[in-house]
Amino acid sequence: MLKILKYSFFDLTRSSWSYVYFLFYLLLGFVLLFLNNDLSNAVITLMNVIIMLVPLIGTIFGVMYYYNSREFTDLLLAQPVKRSSIFLGQYFGVALSLSLSLILGLGIPFAAYGLFKSAVIWDFSMLLVIGIFLTLIFSALAFNIAISTENKIKGFGYAILLWLFLAVIYDGLFLLSLIYFQEYPLDKFSLIASMFNPIDLSRILILLKLDISALLGYTGAVFKDFFGTSKGLIASLMVLLLWVIIPILNIARVIRKKDF
Question: 138 lies in which domain range?
Answer without folding.
Answer: 2-257
